[in-house]
Amino acid sequence: MKIDGGAAFPQSRQFDANGFVIVYESYGMSLRDYFAAAALQGIKWNGYERLDDSAQVAYALADAMLVERDKP
Questions:
Q1: How far is residue 58's CA from residue 60's CA, in Å, rounded to a whole number?
Q2: Is residue 45 part of a domain?
Q3: pTM of the entire structure?
Q4: 2 versus 36: which is more confidently predicted?
C-alpha cells in the first residue's frame, strides 16, 4: 500500500529588490513521515522496548492516520 498524504512544511520564497533570496523551494517532508515521527515519539514515551520493530509500528500508525484523515 502506497500512502503519501501530501507534504508537511512546504516552503517557497522569492524576494529581491535587495531583500535577496530569489526563489527557494522546499517540498518539506511527506505527511506520512511526519506522522510516523510523531507516532515514534509516543511509542518511545510510553516505554515500548522493541527497537527492532518500533519504526514499523510507527509507520503502521502513520498509515492508519492517513486513512482516517481521508474519511469524510
A1: 5
A2: yes
A3: 0.59
A4: 36
Domains contained in the chain, number:
1
Give the residue numbers spanning the domain of 62.
7-69
Classify residue 61 by burial, with Cβ atoms within 10 Å: 0-12, 13-18, 19+.
Answer: middle
With beta carbons less than 8 A apart as the criterion, state whether 58 and 43 touch: yes
Cα separation, 29 vs 46, in Å, equals 25
28 occurs within a structural domain: yes
Asked if residue 61 is part of any domain, the answer here is yes
SS3 11: strand
Over the stretch 7-59, which tens digit does the pLDDT of each residue have?
A: 666 666 677 777 765 666 666 678 888 899 899 888 887 776 777 788 888 99
The count of other CB atoms within 10 Å of the CB of residue 31 is 19
Within-domain flag for 1: no
